[in-house]
Design goal:
CATH topology of the largest domain: Growth Hormone, Chain: A
Number of helices: 18
Oligomer: single chain
Strand content: under 5%
CATH architecture of the largest domain: Up-down Bundle
Structural class: mainly alpha
CATH class of the largest domain: Mainly Alpha
Radius of gyration: 21 Å
Distance between the termini: 34 Å
Number of strands: 0
Shape: globular
CATH superfamily of the largest domain: MFS general substrate transporter like domains
Order of helices and strands: HHHHHHHHHHHHHHHHHH
């Protein structure tokens, strides 16, 4: 029976099964993204390396994601959902095997980079599949359901990493991940079958080179800035300058190639107001999410309150679970009332929580930290799903893959910038070589300023109930 003659109820079941398998696969991959965030002290001790070197298991992953993401628009146009799914999980599984067998830091870093290559293609595949196969009136709720991938999995990562590292060793992170990835791959080989509107497009190699130099150079420089904590090292500004120049040339080339639908990353979504507004708001939201939730709070819990890495990971878990729980209701609310009525209260909630973070000190109780973090993640829940859905809903179908690639690339750039800026500010404002209570408070104040900007710009999001923009 063809897709055209498949009964609606049966087609809906197939779509739900497809999205469900993609969500499970992405969950496994995103769990791996943050699992090493509490592993740096152990790796430094076991591998007898400096923290500045070991931190590249996180930064290298981030740089690799940023390099691969711009290519995903081309991949989604050129290959079917099934082929991309199989390729993505296969690459990820190979990376897990390399990490499990890694004798030292070199292969460990290689494993993380390979895994990032697999993860980078899965997230745009999931978003594009929701936009392609789910009816318009249910996209917000469905996208909200998928928010468990970007919420619960990263939230579980630090807690799982702390437990595994303390009891089994860091290589067991890969041994636990590998069978999960292989199981998802086996199920996906049977289940993932969906019609894919493909286009015969060629890979523009100059664009690929410029993308690697541009996004890789900027992210490498930002990561090195956070590592070195100095104002003008050549190792920071050299790669960033080269990256910025390459990125400018990349944009010029994409604008030329997109006239013939040959761009590696089609930038036409940026010309649409709905997409651009949602993109800017999402960038600010992701920046505060990474800085407050993934950098400053773990540092505060461990260096100021003296908590263990496992306790710090567990303290962040309730907020991550709240984000996952509220994802679907927030998406359903967006479907009913539109973007502005959801985003504005969410942005105000984020700004309020960030302001409360600035009051944290040496005597703050763990319960208060958890409570404010839950409040913060509640606000994030009311922005994340609606903004992603709003941005992609503004695009015609043939630009969904490129719009998704732009959104996800921006997330990695925001993460790199936020990590570097937060660590540098906190360190420079501290009395010693490591961030202390005063330095972290200054960094929290700067982050709260970003939250105020987010709340101020949120009303720019306008509700479009039936409009579908064409290009």
């Amino acid at each position: 029976m063809s897709a055209a003659t498949t009964p609606p109820a049966r087609q809906e079941d197939r779509t739900g099964l497809l999205i469900g398998v993609l969500v499970v696969a992405a969950f496994v991959m995103f769990l791996n993204e943050t699992v090493f965030s509490v592993a740096l002290p152990t790796l430094t001790r076991d591998l007898r390396l400096t923290t500045a070197t070991v931190q590249w298991v996180i930064s290298g992953y981030l740089v690799a994601m940023a390099i691969v993401l711009p290519v995903t628009g081309y991949l989604l146009d050129r290959f079917s959902v099934r082929r991309i799914f199989i390729g993505s999980l296969t690459v990820f599984s190979v990376g897990a095997l390399i990490g499990a067998l890694a004798p030292g830091f070199g292969l460990l870093l290689t494993a993380r980079i390979v895994q990032a290559g697999g993860t980078a293609t899965m997230v745009p595949l999931l978003m594009t599949s929701v936009m392609r196969y789910v009816p318009a009136h249910r996209r917000g709720a469905t996208m909200g359901a998928t928010s468990i991938v970007v919420a619960v999995a990263p939230a579980l990562g630090p807690a799982l990493g702390g437990a595994v590292i303390d009891n089994l060793g860091w290589r067991w992170i890969f041994w636990i991940t590998l069978p999960l990835a292989l199981a998802a791959l086996a199920v996906g080989i049977v289940v993932v079958r969906a019609p894919s509107p493909l286009r015969v497009v060629s890979l523009d190699l100059p664009s690929l080179v410029l993308s690697v130099i541009g996004f890789g150079g900027i992210l490498y420089g930002l990561s090195a800035l956070g590592e070195r904590r100095t104002a003008m090292p050549l190792g920071v500004w050299g790669p960033m300058t080269a990256g910025a120049g390459a990125l400018l040339l990349f944009v010029v080339r994409q604008r030329s190639l997109q006239r013939a639908d040959r761009a590696l990353l089609d930038l036409r979504p940026l010309a649409l107001r709905r997409f651009s507004v949602a993109l800017v708001l999402a960038a600010l939201m992701f920046l505060t999410l990474i800085v407050a939730g993934s950098v400053l709070l773990p540092l505060y819990l461990q260096t100021v309150l003296g908590r263990t890495s496992f306790t710090a990971g567990m303290a962040l878990l309730p907020g991550g679970l709240m984000l996952g729980v509220l994802g679907r209701p927030a998406g359903a609310l967006y479907d009913r009332v539109g973007v502005r009525s959801v985003v504005v209260p969410g942005a105000i909630t984020i700004a309020t929580a960030l302001a409360l973070f600035t009051t944290f000190g040496n005597g703050t109780g763990l319960a208060a930290v958890i409570g404010v973090h839950v409040l913060f993640m509640t606000g994030v829940a009311f922005l994340m799903t609606p903004l992603i859905t709003e941005a992609l809903s503004a695009l015609p179908e043939h630009l969904h893959s490129h719009g998704s690639a732009i959104l996800n690339t921006l997330q990695q750039v925001a993460a790199g910038f936020g990590t570097a800026a937060a660590v540098t500010i906190a360190t420079l404002a501290s009395a010693g070589a490591a961030p202390d209570s005063t330095g972290l408070r200054v960094a929290f104040i700067c982050t709260a300023g970003v939250g105020l900007v987010l709340a101020g710009l949120a009303p720019l999001a306008r509700t479009h109930r039936t409009e579908k923009t064409e290009t």
